[in-house]
Write a structure and sequence with these properties.
Radius of gyration: 11 Å
Number of strands: 4
Largest sheet: 4 strands, mixed
Bound molecules: zinc ion
Shape: globular
Structural class: mainly beta
Number of domains: 1
Helix content: under 10%
Distance between the termini: 27 Å
Length: 60
């Protein structure tokens, strides 16, 4: 299974002009960016250890 298939299961949010924060707890996230079909996608993981929420942010 590739990383891209794993990412398909994550919720997607619209990218904002601020550092991304976890929609569940508001804590900053660990983020890296990938390009998929020329679309920039930010892959976020919440830094709070008891949350760990994973989500994607995409340009609209
Ligand atoms: Zn969180």
């Amino acid at each position: 299974m590739s990383d891209t298939q794993l990412l398909d299961d994550l919720p997607i949010y619209q990218m904002i002009d601020q550092p991304p924060t976890c929609p569940m707890c508001g804590i900053r996230t660990n983020m890296y960016e990938i390009l998929s079909y020329n679309i920039l996608i930010q892959v976020n993981t919440c830094l709070r250890s008891d949350c760990g929420y994973e989500f994607l942010m995409m340009e609209h």
